[in-house]
Write the structure tokens for this entry.
Amino acid sequence: MNIIFSIIFGIVEGITEWLPVSSTGHLILFQSFMQFNNVSEGFWDVFEVVIQLGAILAVVLLYFKKIWPFKLEKKSENNKLKINKDIINLWIKIIISCFPVVLIAVFKIDELAEKYFYNPASIAVMLIIVGIAFILIERKNKDKKKFRVNSIKDLTYKDAVIIGMFQVIAAIFPGTSRSGATIIGALLIGVSRVVSAEYTFYLAIPAMFGASLLKLVKYGFGFTGTEIVILLVGTIVAFLVSIFVIRFLMTYIKKHNFEVFGWYRIALGIIVLSLILFNVI
């Protein structure tokens, strides 16, 4: 059953990490019905973050040429290292956007958030609130044919700061969705849907690598053979599913907006509140 649960969680992570519907929220809700047996204390906290790392590796694979700034060029008999300044500039913006979330971790605000907000009721409320925000913003942009930012290169440092502040909301309130919060922030300041989604993918790389490292340091590396298998299965499944979901999302938003995800969030939030009301979860 542990392996089956790991596969299910990997599928859920691979889908919800990239769609703006909250991966953490979905994983917490699924955990209410499915819990690993005979695993060490704190294993779930590590598992939840490590399978997110698997999802991030899908971004690295799909966008490697756009995020790796170094390239060896052959000139006569010597190799010359060429550095893409545009990509270096992109990484500076990514670091700027991630800085507010780093402060959250440094001051351990995320630990307080886990204590008070990581529960089905809080998740349901944030699913609904952010869902409404998506609908309102997309209806406002419905007839908008031209955005201020239509290329990653056009993002300013000010844009990076603002988008980074929206990441803080997701770091504190589960159910918000990291991708959902950053996409909403980007849309509000005139960034196109495609650029909003792509920049969100890039932001996930340092954020998730950092979170994974912190969790592993906190809980250590002393996993049993069974736990290692569970981690590997979940990570591989999340990686494979993410590849398909990322491609789907980027194709979808070229012709559609994010409103459908807003309605999904509201519907799910209402269902969760109903389950809480009837003591199902």
